[in-house]
Amino acid sequence: MNWGEQPLCIKAYFLTGDLGEVRKIWLRGAGHLNRRIICAEKIFIPVLLNAIQKRGRPLSGFAPTLENLWLEVHPLLGLKETSKATFLSRTWKESRPVMPAAAAVWLWMRHRATTAKASYGESLLHLFFSLADLRELLNSTEEFRELADEVKRFEIRAADTMRFSER
Question: Which terminus of the chain has a lower count of CB atoms within 10 Å, N or C?
Fold first, then answer.
């Protein structure tokens, strides 16, 4: 039997490790997810809708540019208005490649929390136990990705994407 054909025992680190360390990892991951979802809701979706509708009109009195939407996003992220360069380099740059997925998660959680009267955390946890919900989320991600392909500012270079093969 070859190495890739035999079952291997995988130790679940989070079950055997220090609970304090697990909590730190969980909180860091939740923070990343929160920032991605805020960017999806407040930047990606408004710009995408405006471009698709070809409105060219302002949203909430502002043209839907990153410059203007930053004014709405920075308080939600707990950043000062002067932290724009930090936001662009640390949050927005890392968020752009996953915007379709973050938008799908935001939409799914919002719908689930409304229909099931569940909290966002409960809704997100449910996702890990439902193949139907996961399939719905992946389909929404693909739809957002196809729409984003039509908006030049959301073009994603191959170097910014995850690679699953050597090609």
Answer: C
